[in-house]
# Entry
Amino acid sequence: MSRIFLDYNATTPVHPAVLEEMLPYLHDIFGNPSSIHWFGQEARQAVDRARQQVADLIGAEPPEIVFTSGGTESINHAIRGTAEMNSGNSRRIVTSLIEHRAVLSTCEFLKSKDFQVIHLPVDEYGAVSPESAADVITDDTALTTIMLANNEVGTIQPVQEIAGIARERGIVMHTDAVQAMGKIPVDVQQLGVDLLSLSGHKVYAPKGIGALYIRRGVKVAPLIYGGHHERTRRAGTENVPAIVGLGKACELARKELDNGITRLAALRDRLEEGILSHIPDVQLNGHPENRLPNTLNVNFSSIEGESLLMNLDLLGIAVSAGSACTSGASEPSHVLTAMGISPEQSQGSIRFSLGLGTTEADVDATVKALIEIVGRLRELSPLSTNPKSGNQPSEE
Ligand SMILES: *Cc1c(COP(=O)(O)O)cnc(C)c1O
# Structure
């Protein structure tokens, strides 16, 4: 069975050029970057080169990049590290309802440390409004953290506008750019953010590597104590092969960005068009234009997303229902709920996320499989009032 992977927002395979770049650092060049001798210096140079490559992708300076174990650690470092620096009277954290669990859970933890957490709402397209941010980013705010692009529906957030408001008031601004990276242009100067989190495995580098951008002059307490690695901002001997891989992946992402956007948006639109024109009672979740070029989230009424996912899996097609972290649990997606979508509606929602390996043939095979499976499931579905004709209003 040929398999089709349409779950690139959950993770990506390591790019062959990334793997090739990493391999020497797993055998010959095995030195510790902190060592003075040749072995150490070779490794140090590789880490420095990677830091430059990461910095170049986001318009930063190399000393502003700290390597971490992934997106989750970068986010924890940004949020907890800023909260700790502000533990005086700035006890407010402003975030949104549609953040990744890494942000939401970290903020939840800080509530137990006497921080007040404000979750900004989103509109029907899953976008935060800068006006609502302006209302709550007060002088006693320690941090504002809003994701750049949502992992479930792909909606791109007005981070630049919100960062402008935060900066005017002297408040530190973090953005979780894990999904945006490599898919849309990301520039820390243009965005005006102080902190930005990245992850390797969403951009064809390995799992377990990431980076945190810390604007020069911004004070963030470390999460991990030990040696003087990463300018004492993140202790622990560097994961040299993975860092080299992340650097290479960032270089590729930068070179391929424009081509990638055009190619993926065309494939995504072909998928969307195929689904909407052949299957009745389907709704787009997320913003129709202002979203990631590779992401499509749709709701198939009268269907259980989990059954659709499993039926597609039997045919070798991998998609996601809700976010990867919540699938398996049948609670509705917090992102779709925040967008005002009812639990019944969000049940039938599927995320398709495309990537480097996706072809037109994959898209066409997926549309064909969906037509067949959705038809079959709707015939069986007790949720469906009149399964054969598509255009019945759904019963709420
Ligand atoms: C995947 C993801 C993360 C977590 O990154 P890891 O490297 O898997 O820890 C954080 N935020 C978003 C938006 C993500 O998609």
The radius of gyration is 22 Å. Residues 386-396 have pLDDT under 50 and may be disordered. The CA atoms of residues 218 and 363 lie 45 Å apart. Residues 70-72, 100, 102, 147, 151, 176, 178-179, 199, 201-202, 210 surround pyridoxal-5'-phosphate (CB under 6 Å).
